[in-house]
Amino acid sequence: MAETTHITVAETSDGPCGSDQPGTDVSLPVVELLTGRGFVTGKSGSGKSNSASVIAEKLLDNEFGLLIVDIDGEYYGLKEEYEILHVGGDEECDIQVTTEHAEKIASLALEQNVPIILDVSSYLDESEAEELLTAVARSLFAKAKKQKQPFLLLVEEVHEYIPERGSVGECGKMLIKIGKRGRKHGLGICGISQRPADVKKDFITQCDWLLWHRLTWNNDTKVVQRIIDGEHADAVENLDDGEGFLMTDWAEQVRRVQFHRKKTFDAGATPGLDDFERPELKSVSDDLVSELTEISEEEAERENRIAELREELDEKNSRIAELERELQDARDLQQMADQFVEALVGHVEGAAPGRTERERMRSGPRAPSIPGEQVTLDETSEHDGQTEESAQEFPSSIFDTSAETEASPGPDAGGRESEQTAEAGDGSLLEAAGPESNDQEATVTAGDEPAFTAWEDNSTTASGVDADQLLGELRSPPESVDEDWPSDRSQTPREQIESTLRNDAEIVDESDTEPLVVRECKADIGALPTKTRKMLAFYREFGPATPLDAFFAADGEEDRTAAYSHNRELRTAGLVEHVGRGHYDYCLRNRLVSELEDYVEEETVDGYIRDIEETTDL
Question: E strands along 43-107, which residues?
Fold first, then answer.
Protein backbone atom coordinates (compact mmCIF):
# COMPACT_ATOMS: atom_id res chain seq x y z
CA MET A 1 0.00 0.00 0.00
CA ALA A 2 1.33 3.42 -0.95
CA GLU A 3 2.29 6.02 1.63
CA THR A 4 0.12 8.66 -0.05
CA THR A 5 -1.68 10.86 2.47
CA HIS A 6 -3.77 12.94 0.03
CA ILE A 7 -5.39 12.39 -3.35
CA THR A 8 -6.15 15.20 -5.83
CA VAL A 9 -9.64 14.91 -7.29
CA ALA A 10 -10.67 18.43 -8.45
CA GLU A 11 -9.75 22.09 -8.76
CA THR A 12 -11.47 25.22 -7.57
CA SER A 13 -13.83 27.01 -9.99
CA ASP A 14 -15.14 30.50 -10.41
CA GLY A 15 -18.72 31.67 -9.94
CA PRO A 16 -21.19 32.48 -7.15
CA CYS A 17 -19.89 31.20 -3.83
CA GLY A 18 -16.68 30.31 -5.64
CA SER A 19 -13.02 30.76 -4.81
CA ASP A 20 -11.01 33.90 -5.44
CA GLN A 21 -8.30 31.73 -6.99
CA PRO A 22 -9.93 29.36 -9.48
CA GLY A 23 -7.84 26.48 -10.84
CA THR A 24 -6.28 25.54 -7.49
CA ASP A 25 -5.95 21.78 -6.92
CA VAL A 26 -8.32 20.28 -4.40
CA SER A 27 -7.03 17.29 -2.42
CA LEU A 28 -8.73 14.98 0.05
CA PRO A 29 -6.91 13.39 3.02
CA VAL A 30 -6.88 9.61 2.52
CA VAL A 31 -7.39 8.56 6.14
CA GLU A 32 -10.41 10.85 6.61
CA LEU A 33 -11.80 9.69 3.27
CA LEU A 34 -11.37 5.98 4.00
CA THR A 35 -12.49 5.95 7.63
CA GLY A 36 -14.98 8.85 7.71
CA ARG A 37 -18.54 9.41 6.54
CA GLY A 38 -19.16 11.05 3.19
CA PHE A 39 -22.17 12.07 1.09
CA VAL A 40 -22.26 12.86 -2.65
CA THR A 41 -25.49 14.17 -4.17
CA GLY A 42 -26.78 15.77 -7.34
CA LYS A 43 -29.57 15.33 -9.86
CA SER A 44 -29.20 12.84 -12.69
CA GLY A 45 -26.53 13.98 -15.15
CA SER A 46 -24.93 16.45 -12.78
CA GLY A 47 -21.72 14.41 -12.41
CA LYS A 48 -22.07 12.73 -9.02
CA SER A 49 -21.23 9.21 -10.32
CA ASN A 50 -18.23 10.66 -12.19
CA SER A 51 -16.99 12.28 -8.98
CA ALA A 52 -17.41 8.97 -7.08
CA SER A 53 -15.51 7.16 -9.85
CA VAL A 54 -12.68 9.72 -9.72
CA ILE A 55 -12.33 9.14 -5.95
CA ALA A 56 -12.35 5.37 -6.56
CA GLU A 57 -9.70 5.62 -9.28
CA LYS A 58 -7.40 7.71 -7.10
CA LEU A 59 -7.73 5.19 -4.26
CA LEU A 60 -7.07 2.28 -6.63
CA ASP A 61 -4.02 4.06 -8.05
CA ASN A 62 -2.55 4.04 -4.57
CA GLU A 63 -3.74 0.48 -3.73
CA PHE A 64 -6.16 1.50 -1.03
CA GLY A 65 -9.00 -0.88 -0.30
CA LEU A 66 -12.62 -0.21 -1.15
CA LEU A 67 -15.87 -1.98 -2.00
CA ILE A 68 -18.39 -0.33 -4.34
CA VAL A 69 -22.08 -1.22 -4.08
CA ASP A 70 -23.26 -0.76 -7.67
CA ILE A 71 -27.04 -0.37 -7.99
CA ASP A 72 -27.23 0.37 -11.72
CA GLY A 73 -24.31 -1.65 -13.12
CA GLU A 74 -22.23 1.41 -14.11
CA TYR A 75 -18.92 0.79 -12.32
CA TYR A 76 -17.65 -2.23 -14.25
CA GLY A 77 -15.80 0.28 -16.50
CA LEU A 78 -13.15 0.46 -13.77
CA LYS A 79 -11.97 -2.95 -14.98
CA GLU A 80 -10.60 -1.22 -18.07
CA GLU A 81 -7.63 -0.05 -15.99
CA TYR A 82 -7.73 -1.99 -12.73
CA GLU A 83 -7.77 -5.58 -11.67
CA ILE A 84 -10.92 -5.37 -9.61
CA LEU A 85 -13.17 -8.27 -8.64
CA HIS A 86 -16.67 -7.89 -10.08
CA VAL A 87 -19.27 -10.00 -8.22
CA GLY A 88 -23.06 -10.08 -8.37
CA GLY A 89 -25.94 -11.89 -9.98
CA ASP A 90 -25.11 -11.18 -13.62
CA GLU A 91 -23.40 -13.61 -15.97
CA GLU A 92 -21.00 -10.80 -16.96
CA CYS A 93 -19.66 -10.70 -13.42
CA ASP A 94 -16.48 -12.57 -12.60
CA ILE A 95 -18.56 -14.82 -10.36
CA GLN A 96 -22.19 -14.97 -9.30
CA VAL A 97 -22.64 -14.78 -5.55
CA THR A 98 -25.29 -15.20 -2.86
CA THR A 99 -25.41 -14.55 0.87
CA GLU A 100 -23.33 -17.70 1.33
CA HIS A 101 -20.38 -15.80 -0.19
CA ALA A 102 -20.70 -12.71 2.04
CA GLU A 103 -18.08 -13.69 4.59
CA LYS A 104 -15.57 -14.65 1.91
CA ILE A 105 -16.15 -11.37 0.04
CA ALA A 106 -15.41 -9.42 3.21
CA SER A 107 -12.33 -11.56 3.81
CA LEU A 108 -10.95 -10.86 0.31
CA ALA A 109 -11.62 -7.13 0.68
CA LEU A 110 -10.12 -6.58 4.13
CA GLU A 111 -7.60 -9.35 4.64
CA GLN A 112 -6.27 -9.60 1.07
CA ASN A 113 -6.91 -5.96 0.06
CA VAL A 114 -8.83 -6.96 -3.07
CA PRO A 115 -10.95 -4.11 -4.54
CA ILE A 116 -14.47 -5.34 -5.21
CA ILE A 117 -17.54 -4.17 -7.13
CA LEU A 118 -20.68 -5.66 -5.61
CA ASP A 119 -23.13 -5.38 -8.51
CA VAL A 120 -26.71 -5.88 -7.28
CA SER A 121 -28.34 -4.45 -10.42
CA SER A 122 -29.08 -7.87 -11.95
CA TYR A 123 -31.02 -9.33 -9.02
CA LEU A 124 -34.66 -9.36 -10.06
CA ASP A 125 -35.77 -9.80 -6.48
CA GLU A 126 -34.89 -6.62 -4.57
CA SER A 127 -35.10 -8.45 -1.26
CA GLU A 128 -32.42 -10.86 -2.46
CA ALA A 129 -30.11 -7.95 -3.32
CA GLU A 130 -30.80 -6.30 0.02
CA GLU A 131 -30.10 -9.51 1.94
CA LEU A 132 -26.77 -9.88 0.11
CA LEU A 133 -25.71 -6.29 0.87
CA THR A 134 -26.78 -6.73 4.50
CA ALA A 135 -24.70 -9.88 4.85
CA VAL A 136 -21.64 -8.30 3.22
CA ALA A 137 -21.87 -5.11 5.32
CA ARG A 138 -22.25 -7.15 8.49
CA SER A 139 -19.22 -9.27 7.63
CA LEU A 140 -17.17 -6.17 6.83
CA PHE A 141 -18.06 -4.61 10.18
CA ALA A 142 -17.24 -7.80 12.09
CA LYS A 143 -13.86 -8.25 10.38
CA ALA A 144 -12.95 -4.56 10.57
CA LYS A 145 -13.02 -4.77 14.39
CA LYS A 146 -10.15 -7.27 14.20
CA GLN A 147 -8.38 -6.04 11.09
CA LYS A 148 -8.16 -2.33 12.00
CA GLN A 149 -7.38 -1.40 8.40
CA PRO A 150 -8.65 1.80 6.65
CA PHE A 151 -11.32 0.76 4.17
CA LEU A 152 -14.10 2.57 2.29
CA LEU A 153 -17.59 1.24 1.54
CA LEU A 154 -19.10 3.26 -1.33
CA VAL A 155 -22.91 2.83 -1.64
CA GLU A 156 -24.90 4.10 -4.64
CA GLU A 157 -28.54 5.21 -4.27
CA VAL A 158 -28.22 5.17 -0.50
CA HIS A 159 -31.74 6.62 -0.11
CA GLU A 160 -33.14 3.17 -0.96
CA TYR A 161 -31.64 1.76 2.24
CA ILE A 162 -31.81 4.66 4.69
CA PRO A 163 -34.86 6.66 3.60
CA GLU A 164 -36.02 9.81 5.34
CA ARG A 165 -39.60 8.54 5.44
CA GLY A 166 -40.73 5.05 6.21
CA SER A 167 -39.08 2.32 8.15
CA VAL A 168 -35.42 1.47 7.86
CA GLY A 169 -34.80 -2.21 7.13
CA GLU A 170 -32.03 -4.47 8.37
CA CYS A 171 -29.72 -3.30 5.60
CA GLY A 172 -30.24 0.39 6.42
CA LYS A 173 -29.68 -0.27 10.11
CA MET A 174 -26.40 -1.99 9.30
CA LEU A 175 -25.23 0.92 7.11
CA ILE A 176 -26.16 3.41 9.83
CA LYS A 177 -24.24 1.28 12.33
CA ILE A 178 -21.17 1.45 10.10
CA GLY A 179 -21.61 5.23 9.82
CA LYS A 180 -21.81 5.64 13.60
CA ARG A 181 -19.32 3.06 14.85
CA GLY A 182 -17.20 2.05 11.85
CA ARG A 183 -14.71 4.89 12.11
CA LYS A 184 -13.08 3.55 15.30
CA HIS A 185 -12.44 0.27 13.48
CA GLY A 186 -11.12 1.91 10.29
CA LEU A 187 -14.30 1.27 8.26
CA GLY A 188 -15.70 4.31 6.44
CA ILE A 189 -18.80 4.79 4.30
CA CYS A 190 -19.77 7.14 1.49
CA GLY A 191 -23.41 7.40 0.40
CA ILE A 192 -24.44 8.60 -3.06
CA SER A 193 -27.95 9.81 -3.94
CA GLN A 194 -29.68 12.06 -6.44
CA ARG A 195 -32.37 13.03 -3.91
CA PRO A 196 -30.93 14.40 -0.64
CA ALA A 197 -34.47 15.10 0.58
CA ASP A 198 -35.13 11.35 0.56
CA VAL A 199 -32.05 10.45 2.62
CA LYS A 200 -32.33 10.18 6.40
CA LYS A 201 -31.09 13.49 7.80
CA ASP A 202 -29.38 11.81 10.74
CA PHE A 203 -26.98 10.24 8.24
CA ILE A 204 -26.31 13.48 6.31
CA THR A 205 -25.68 15.62 9.38
CA GLN A 206 -23.10 13.13 10.72
CA CYS A 207 -20.99 13.17 7.53
CA ASP A 208 -17.41 14.46 7.65
CA TRP A 209 -17.44 15.60 4.02
CA LEU A 210 -20.22 16.40 1.56
CA LEU A 211 -20.26 17.15 -2.16
CA TRP A 212 -23.32 18.98 -3.58
CA HIS A 213 -23.72 18.81 -7.36
CA ARG A 214 -26.54 20.55 -9.26
CA LEU A 215 -29.95 20.30 -7.58
CA THR A 216 -33.15 21.89 -8.88
CA TRP A 217 -35.97 20.30 -6.94
CA ASN A 218 -37.26 22.61 -4.23
CA ASN A 219 -37.20 19.95 -1.49
CA ASP A 220 -33.58 19.18 -2.31
CA THR A 221 -32.42 22.79 -2.34
CA LYS A 222 -34.05 23.22 1.07
CA VAL A 223 -31.68 20.56 2.38
CA VAL A 224 -28.74 22.65 1.06
CA GLN A 225 -30.17 25.68 2.78
CA ARG A 226 -30.49 23.77 6.02
CA ILE A 227 -27.00 22.26 5.90
CA ILE A 228 -25.07 25.25 4.38
CA ASP A 229 -27.07 28.43 3.81
CA GLY A 230 -29.56 30.12 1.49
CA GLU A 231 -26.88 31.60 -0.81
CA HIS A 232 -25.49 28.20 -1.66
CA ALA A 233 -29.04 26.84 -1.99
CA ASP A 234 -29.69 29.36 -4.76
CA ALA A 235 -26.34 28.81 -6.45
CA VAL A 236 -26.59 25.00 -6.45
CA GLU A 237 -29.30 25.17 -9.10
CA ASN A 238 -26.88 26.65 -11.68
CA LEU A 239 -23.81 24.49 -11.25
CA ASP A 240 -22.24 23.03 -14.40
CA ASP A 241 -21.80 19.30 -15.00
CA GLY A 242 -19.13 17.96 -12.67
CA GLU A 243 -19.17 21.15 -10.61
CA GLY A 244 -20.17 21.14 -6.97
CA PHE A 245 -19.85 22.60 -3.51
CA LEU A 246 -17.37 20.69 -1.36
CA MET A 247 -17.95 20.92 2.37
CA THR A 248 -15.46 19.23 4.74
CA ASP A 249 -14.63 19.16 8.42
CA TRP A 250 -10.94 19.80 7.71
CA ALA A 251 -11.48 23.00 5.62
CA GLU A 252 -12.65 26.35 6.94
CA GLN A 253 -15.00 27.16 4.07
CA VAL A 254 -17.24 25.61 1.46
CA ARG A 255 -15.39 25.46 -1.86
CA ARG A 256 -16.85 25.54 -5.35
CA VAL A 257 -14.92 22.85 -7.24
CA GLN A 258 -14.82 21.24 -10.64
CA PHE A 259 -14.12 17.50 -10.42
CA HIS A 260 -11.79 15.85 -12.89
CA ARG A 261 -13.15 13.50 -15.54
CA LYS A 262 -12.78 9.81 -14.87
CA LYS A 263 -10.19 8.08 -17.05
CA THR A 264 -11.90 4.68 -17.28
CA PHE A 265 -14.84 3.67 -19.41
CA ASP A 266 -18.03 5.52 -18.45
CA ALA A 267 -20.54 2.68 -18.29
CA GLY A 268 -23.12 4.98 -16.72
CA ALA A 269 -23.22 7.52 -19.53
CA THR A 270 -26.55 8.05 -21.27
CA PRO A 271 -26.52 6.11 -24.58
CA GLY A 272 -26.34 8.25 -27.72
CA LEU A 273 -26.66 7.64 -31.44
CA ASP A 274 -23.04 6.54 -31.75
CA ASP A 275 -22.24 2.85 -31.77
CA PHE A 276 -21.59 1.44 -28.35
CA GLU A 277 -18.13 -0.03 -28.05
CA ARG A 278 -17.37 -1.98 -24.92
CA PRO A 279 -13.70 -1.64 -23.97
CA GLU A 280 -11.47 -4.58 -23.25
CA LEU A 281 -11.70 -5.22 -19.53
CA LYS A 282 -9.03 -6.69 -17.34
CA SER A 283 -9.73 -10.11 -15.91
CA VAL A 284 -8.89 -11.05 -12.37
CA SER A 285 -6.60 -13.94 -11.54
CA ASP A 286 -8.07 -17.36 -10.93
CA ASP A 287 -6.70 -17.32 -7.41
CA LEU A 288 -9.05 -14.48 -6.44
CA VAL A 289 -12.19 -16.36 -7.42
CA SER A 290 -11.10 -19.91 -6.64
CA GLU A 291 -12.35 -19.86 -3.06
CA LEU A 292 -15.58 -18.13 -4.12
CA THR A 293 -16.01 -20.78 -6.78
CA GLU A 294 -15.60 -23.49 -4.17
CA ILE A 295 -18.37 -21.89 -2.14
CA SER A 296 -20.57 -21.78 -5.24
CA GLU A 297 -19.85 -25.41 -5.96
CA GLU A 298 -20.60 -26.39 -2.38
CA GLU A 299 -23.82 -24.42 -2.54
CA ALA A 300 -24.73 -26.10 -5.83
CA GLU A 301 -23.99 -29.51 -4.34
CA ARG A 302 -26.10 -28.68 -1.32
CA GLU A 303 -28.99 -27.57 -3.53
CA ASN A 304 -28.63 -30.71 -5.64
CA ARG A 305 -28.60 -32.82 -2.52
CA ILE A 306 -31.71 -31.06 -1.26
CA ALA A 307 -33.38 -31.71 -4.61
CA GLU A 308 -32.38 -35.37 -4.42
CA LEU A 309 -33.71 -35.65 -0.88
CA ARG A 310 -36.97 -34.03 -1.92
CA GLU A 311 -37.24 -36.46 -4.82
CA GLU A 312 -36.57 -39.38 -2.49
CA LEU A 313 -39.16 -38.01 -0.09
CA ASP A 314 -41.71 -37.78 -2.90
CA GLU A 315 -40.97 -41.37 -3.90
CA LYS A 316 -41.34 -42.53 -0.30
CA ASN A 317 -44.57 -40.62 0.06
CA SER A 318 -45.87 -42.28 -3.11
CA ARG A 319 -44.86 -45.68 -1.79
CA ILE A 320 -46.49 -44.95 1.55
CA ALA A 321 -49.69 -43.91 -0.22
CA GLU A 322 -49.58 -47.16 -2.20
CA LEU A 323 -49.12 -49.20 0.99
CA GLU A 324 -51.95 -47.33 2.63
CA ARG A 325 -54.19 -48.23 -0.29
CA GLU A 326 -53.12 -51.87 -0.03
CA LEU A 327 -53.82 -51.79 3.69
CA GLN A 328 -57.27 -50.36 3.07
CA ASP A 329 -57.92 -53.03 0.45
CA ALA A 330 -56.91 -55.68 2.99
CA ARG A 331 -59.26 -54.17 5.54
CA ASP A 332 -62.08 -54.10 3.01
CA LEU A 333 -61.37 -57.74 2.16
CA GLN A 334 -61.41 -58.64 5.83
CA GLN A 335 -64.75 -56.89 6.27
CA MET A 336 -66.21 -58.74 3.27
CA ALA A 337 -64.90 -62.03 4.66
CA ASP A 338 -66.48 -61.27 8.04
CA GLN A 339 -69.81 -60.63 6.38
CA PHE A 340 -69.50 -63.80 4.31
CA VAL A 341 -68.64 -65.96 7.34
CA GLU A 342 -71.49 -64.49 9.36
CA ALA A 343 -73.94 -65.12 6.55
CA LEU A 344 -72.64 -68.67 6.02
CA VAL A 345 -72.68 -69.60 9.70
CA GLY A 346 -76.12 -68.07 10.06
CA HIS A 347 -77.37 -70.12 7.14
CA VAL A 348 -75.88 -73.36 8.46
CA GLU A 349 -76.89 -72.92 12.09
CA GLY A 350 -80.12 -70.99 11.83
CA ALA A 351 -81.64 -71.53 8.39
CA ALA A 352 -81.62 -75.35 8.34
CA PRO A 353 -85.19 -76.40 9.28
CA GLY A 354 -84.17 -80.02 9.93
CA ARG A 355 -81.57 -78.94 12.47
CA THR A 356 -83.92 -76.46 14.07
CA GLU A 357 -86.65 -79.05 14.29
CA ARG A 358 -84.25 -81.58 15.76
CA GLU A 359 -83.19 -79.13 18.49
CA ARG A 360 -86.82 -78.26 19.12
CA MET A 361 -87.66 -81.91 19.40
CA ARG A 362 -84.74 -82.48 21.75
CA SER A 363 -85.75 -79.70 24.07
CA GLY A 364 -89.51 -80.13 23.60
CA PRO A 365 -90.93 -83.53 24.59
CA ARG A 366 -90.11 -85.02 27.94
CA ALA A 367 -88.47 -88.41 27.89
CA PRO A 368 -90.87 -91.26 28.65
CA SER A 369 -90.25 -92.98 31.94
CA ILE A 370 -92.18 -96.15 31.00
CA PRO A 371 -91.74 -98.14 27.80
CA GLY A 372 -94.67 -97.53 25.51
CA GLU A 373 -95.73 -94.30 27.24
CA GLN A 374 -97.15 -91.74 24.83
CA VAL A 375 -96.51 -88.01 24.92
CA THR A 376 -99.14 -85.72 23.45
CA LEU A 377 -98.63 -82.45 21.64
CA ASP A 378 -100.11 -80.62 24.60
CA GLU A 379 -97.26 -81.87 26.77
CA THR A 380 -94.72 -81.00 24.09
CA SER A 381 -96.02 -77.47 23.87
CA GLU A 382 -95.52 -76.99 27.59
CA HIS A 383 -91.79 -77.68 27.17
CA ASP A 384 -91.03 -75.54 24.17
CA GLY A 385 -93.23 -72.63 25.09
CA GLN A 386 -95.64 -73.17 22.24
CA THR A 387 -99.42 -73.77 22.22
CA GLU A 388 -101.56 -75.86 19.96
CA GLU A 389 -102.53 -72.71 18.14
CA SER A 390 -98.87 -71.97 17.31
CA ALA A 391 -98.46 -75.47 15.95
CA GLN A 392 -101.54 -75.03 13.82
CA GLU A 393 -99.90 -72.08 12.07
CA PHE A 394 -98.09 -74.49 9.73
CA PRO A 395 -99.97 -75.05 6.44
CA SER A 396 -102.38 -77.96 6.44
CA SER A 397 -100.75 -79.28 3.32
CA ILE A 398 -97.63 -80.07 5.33
CA PHE A 399 -99.01 -81.08 8.73
CA ASP A 400 -102.26 -83.00 8.49
CA THR A 401 -104.23 -83.65 11.69
CA SER A 402 -104.32 -87.28 10.75
CA ALA A 403 -100.61 -87.49 10.13
CA GLU A 404 -98.58 -89.88 12.18
CA THR A 405 -95.03 -89.79 13.24
CA GLU A 406 -93.55 -93.22 13.51
CA ALA A 407 -90.43 -93.95 15.49
CA SER A 408 -88.61 -97.19 14.88
CA PRO A 409 -88.00 -99.06 18.12
CA GLY A 410 -84.55 -99.17 19.55
CA PRO A 411 -83.00 -100.61 22.63
CA ASP A 412 -83.09 -98.47 25.74
CA ALA A 413 -80.51 -98.49 28.50
CA GLY A 414 -81.72 -101.90 29.64
CA GLY A 415 -81.79 -103.43 26.22
CA ARG A 416 -85.55 -102.90 25.83
CA GLU A 417 -87.21 -101.11 22.99
CA SER A 418 -89.10 -97.91 23.73
CA GLU A 419 -91.57 -96.05 21.65
CA GLN A 420 -92.93 -92.52 21.92
CA THR A 421 -96.10 -91.50 20.15
CA ALA A 422 -97.53 -87.98 19.99
CA GLU A 423 -101.16 -87.74 19.00
CA ALA A 424 -103.28 -84.82 17.86
CA GLY A 425 -106.95 -85.25 17.17
CA ASP A 426 -107.91 -88.70 16.00
CA GLY A 427 -104.52 -89.88 14.68
CA SER A 428 -100.95 -90.39 15.71
CA LEU A 429 -98.96 -87.34 14.66
CA LEU A 430 -95.43 -87.97 15.89
CA GLU A 431 -93.38 -90.87 17.09
CA ALA A 432 -89.91 -89.97 18.36
CA ALA A 433 -87.05 -92.15 19.37
CA GLY A 434 -85.98 -92.10 22.95
CA PRO A 435 -83.02 -90.05 24.01
CA GLU A 436 -80.85 -93.11 24.50
CA SER A 437 -81.18 -94.12 20.84
CA ASN A 438 -78.03 -93.51 18.79
CA ASP A 439 -79.25 -94.13 15.28
CA GLN A 440 -82.96 -93.60 15.11
CA GLU A 441 -84.96 -91.75 12.52
CA ALA A 442 -87.81 -89.34 13.19
CA THR A 443 -90.13 -88.69 10.27
CA VAL A 444 -92.72 -85.95 10.10
CA THR A 445 -95.37 -86.86 7.56
CA ALA A 446 -98.04 -84.93 5.76
CA GLY A 447 -100.67 -87.32 4.53
CA ASP A 448 -98.96 -90.33 3.01
CA GLU A 449 -95.62 -88.56 2.21
CA PRO A 450 -92.87 -87.58 4.69
CA ALA A 451 -92.36 -83.79 5.08
CA PHE A 452 -88.75 -84.11 6.29
CA THR A 453 -86.55 -86.56 8.14
CA ALA A 454 -84.27 -85.56 11.04
CA TRP A 455 -81.35 -87.69 12.19
CA GLU A 456 -80.10 -87.60 15.69
CA ASP A 457 -76.40 -87.64 14.69
CA ASN A 458 -76.46 -86.91 10.96
CA SER A 459 -79.04 -84.19 10.38
CA THR A 460 -79.53 -82.58 6.96
CA THR A 461 -81.01 -79.32 5.80
CA ALA A 462 -84.29 -79.07 4.00
CA SER A 463 -82.42 -78.70 0.72
CA GLY A 464 -80.63 -82.01 1.24
CA VAL A 465 -77.26 -80.52 2.35
CA ASP A 466 -75.63 -82.14 5.31
CA ALA A 467 -74.93 -79.26 7.75
CA ASP A 468 -72.22 -81.03 9.75
CA GLN A 469 -70.56 -82.19 6.57
CA LEU A 470 -70.63 -78.59 5.25
CA LEU A 471 -69.01 -77.26 8.42
CA GLY A 472 -66.41 -80.02 8.21
CA GLU A 473 -65.50 -79.00 4.68
CA LEU A 474 -65.13 -75.37 5.76
CA ARG A 475 -62.78 -76.43 8.54
CA SER A 476 -60.66 -78.50 6.10
CA PRO A 477 -58.56 -76.83 3.39
CA PRO A 478 -59.65 -77.40 -0.19
CA GLU A 479 -57.49 -79.65 -2.29
CA SER A 480 -56.31 -76.72 -4.44
CA VAL A 481 -54.99 -74.69 -1.47
CA ASP A 482 -51.27 -74.87 -0.79
CA GLU A 483 -49.52 -75.67 2.46
CA ASP A 484 -49.93 -72.11 3.74
CA TRP A 485 -53.55 -72.86 4.62
CA PRO A 486 -53.99 -72.57 8.39
CA SER A 487 -53.32 -75.98 9.91
CA ASP A 488 -55.19 -75.40 13.17
CA ARG A 489 -58.28 -77.57 12.65
CA SER A 490 -59.64 -76.51 16.04
CA GLN A 491 -60.48 -73.03 14.61
CA THR A 492 -63.85 -72.22 13.18
CA PRO A 493 -64.04 -71.16 9.49
CA ARG A 494 -64.47 -67.58 10.57
CA GLU A 495 -61.44 -67.74 12.88
CA GLN A 496 -59.33 -69.27 10.11
CA ILE A 497 -60.26 -66.55 7.61
CA GLU A 498 -59.73 -63.81 10.19
CA SER A 499 -56.31 -65.28 11.08
CA THR A 500 -55.25 -65.33 7.42
CA LEU A 501 -56.40 -61.75 6.82
CA ARG A 502 -54.77 -60.60 10.03
CA ASN A 503 -51.42 -62.03 8.90
CA ASP A 504 -51.78 -60.27 5.54
CA ALA A 505 -52.61 -56.99 7.28
CA GLU A 506 -49.56 -57.33 9.54
CA ILE A 507 -47.34 -57.67 6.47
CA VAL A 508 -48.68 -54.38 5.14
CA ASP A 509 -48.51 -52.76 8.57
CA GLU A 510 -44.78 -53.48 8.74
CA SER A 511 -44.22 -50.69 6.22
CA ASP A 512 -43.77 -47.09 7.21
CA THR A 513 -47.31 -45.86 7.75
CA GLU A 514 -46.63 -42.89 10.04
CA PRO A 515 -48.58 -39.74 9.12
CA LEU A 516 -47.30 -37.51 6.34
CA VAL A 517 -46.89 -34.51 8.67
CA VAL A 518 -44.51 -36.55 10.86
CA ARG A 519 -42.34 -37.39 7.87
CA GLU A 520 -42.44 -33.77 6.70
CA CYS A 521 -41.32 -32.55 10.15
CA LYS A 522 -38.39 -34.99 10.10
CA ALA A 523 -37.40 -33.82 6.62
CA ASP A 524 -37.77 -30.11 7.50
CA ILE A 525 -35.67 -30.40 10.68
CA GLY A 526 -33.10 -32.62 8.97
CA ALA A 527 -32.59 -30.03 6.22
CA LEU A 528 -31.96 -27.14 8.64
CA PRO A 529 -28.47 -25.62 8.84
CA THR A 530 -26.56 -26.37 12.02
CA LYS A 531 -27.11 -22.98 13.65
CA THR A 532 -30.80 -22.98 12.80
CA ARG A 533 -31.23 -26.42 14.34
CA LYS A 534 -29.36 -25.29 17.47
CA MET A 535 -31.77 -22.37 17.71
CA LEU A 536 -34.69 -24.80 17.52
CA ALA A 537 -33.12 -26.94 20.27
CA PHE A 538 -32.73 -23.80 22.39
CA TYR A 539 -36.41 -22.92 21.98
CA ARG A 540 -37.36 -26.49 22.84
CA GLU A 541 -35.28 -26.56 26.02
CA PHE A 542 -35.70 -23.04 27.39
CA GLY A 543 -39.06 -21.94 25.99
CA PRO A 544 -39.95 -18.41 24.79
CA ALA A 545 -36.97 -16.29 23.76
CA THR A 546 -35.96 -13.66 21.21
CA PRO A 547 -34.33 -14.78 17.96
CA LEU A 548 -31.19 -12.88 18.96
CA ASP A 549 -30.88 -14.84 22.22
CA ALA A 550 -31.51 -18.14 20.44
CA PHE A 551 -28.98 -17.27 17.72
CA PHE A 552 -26.35 -16.29 20.27
CA ALA A 553 -26.92 -19.58 22.11
CA ALA A 554 -26.45 -21.35 18.78
CA ASP A 555 -22.87 -20.00 18.53
CA GLY A 556 -23.97 -17.11 16.33
CA GLU A 557 -22.64 -13.58 16.52
CA GLU A 558 -24.55 -10.70 18.02
CA ASP A 559 -26.20 -10.13 14.67
CA ARG A 560 -29.88 -9.26 14.61
CA THR A 561 -30.30 -9.72 10.86
CA ALA A 562 -28.74 -13.17 10.81
CA ALA A 563 -30.74 -14.18 13.86
CA TYR A 564 -34.05 -13.23 12.27
CA SER A 565 -33.00 -14.82 8.98
CA HIS A 566 -32.41 -18.16 10.69
CA ASN A 567 -35.53 -17.69 12.79
CA ARG A 568 -37.58 -17.10 9.64
CA GLU A 569 -36.68 -20.61 8.45
CA LEU A 570 -38.04 -22.07 11.69
CA ARG A 571 -41.18 -19.94 11.57
CA THR A 572 -42.05 -20.71 7.93
CA ALA A 573 -41.51 -24.43 8.62
CA GLY A 574 -44.05 -24.26 11.44
CA LEU A 575 -41.51 -25.22 14.11
CA VAL A 576 -41.63 -22.00 16.16
CA GLU A 577 -44.30 -19.34 16.55
CA HIS A 578 -44.47 -15.77 17.80
CA VAL A 579 -45.82 -15.62 21.35
CA GLY A 580 -45.70 -11.85 21.87
CA ARG A 581 -43.23 -9.06 22.60
CA GLY A 582 -40.70 -10.30 20.07
CA HIS A 583 -40.45 -13.75 21.66
CA TYR A 584 -40.81 -17.06 19.84
CA ASP A 585 -41.44 -20.54 21.19
CA TYR A 586 -41.18 -24.19 20.15
CA CYS A 587 -44.48 -25.27 18.52
CA LEU A 588 -43.92 -28.71 17.01
CA ARG A 589 -46.93 -30.04 18.92
CA ASN A 590 -49.18 -27.32 17.48
CA ARG A 591 -48.13 -28.23 13.95
CA LEU A 592 -48.87 -31.92 14.49
CA VAL A 593 -52.22 -31.32 16.19
CA SER A 594 -53.35 -28.90 13.46
CA GLU A 595 -52.60 -31.36 10.65
CA LEU A 596 -53.51 -34.68 12.26
CA GLU A 597 -57.08 -35.98 12.41
CA ASP A 598 -59.23 -35.17 15.41
CA TYR A 599 -59.31 -38.80 16.53
CA VAL A 600 -55.55 -38.92 17.20
CA GLU A 601 -55.06 -39.07 20.94
CA GLU A 602 -52.63 -36.90 22.89
CA GLU A 603 -50.47 -39.89 23.82
CA THR A 604 -50.07 -40.71 20.13
CA VAL A 605 -49.01 -37.11 19.40
CA ASP A 606 -46.47 -37.33 22.24
CA GLY A 607 -45.08 -40.49 20.64
CA TYR A 608 -44.77 -38.76 17.27
CA ILE A 609 -42.93 -35.83 18.89
CA ARG A 610 -40.47 -38.15 20.66
CA ASP A 611 -39.89 -40.04 17.41
CA ILE A 612 -39.23 -36.81 15.47
CA GLU A 613 -36.85 -35.43 18.11
CA GLU A 614 -34.94 -38.71 18.44
CA THR A 615 -34.69 -39.20 14.66
CA THR A 616 -33.37 -35.67 14.08
CA ASP A 617 -31.11 -35.63 17.19
CA LEU A 618 -32.90 -32.51 18.35
Answer: 66-70, 85-88, 95-96
d(CA 164, CA 370): 123
Region of 6 on the Ramachandran plot (φ > 0 left; ψ -120 to 50 alpha; else beta): beta
To the question of domain 6-264 being in CATH 3.40.50.300, the answer is yes
Q: How far is CA 289 from CA 67, 84, 262, in A?
A: 16, 11, 27
Q: Break the chain into its structural domains and give their ranges.
A: 6-264, 353-464, 516-615
Mean per-residue pLDDT, 587-603: 82
pLDDT in tens, 48-89: 999 999 999 999 999 999 999 999 888 999 998 999 999 998
| 7-21 pLDDT per residue, tens | 999 999 988 888 778
Chain-centre distance for alpha carbon 257 = 58
Fold of 516-615: Arc Repressor Mutant, subunit A (1.10.10)
pTM metric for this prediction? 0.51
Query: What is the residue-wise DSSP string for 501-538?
Result: HHHHHHHHHTS----HHHHHHHHHHHTS-HHHHHHHHH
DSSP classification of residue 38: E
**Under a CB-based contact definition with an 8 Å cutoff, are residues 191 and 38 in contact?**
yes
Judging by DSSP bridges, how do beta strands 209-212 and 116-119 pair with one another? Answer: unpaired
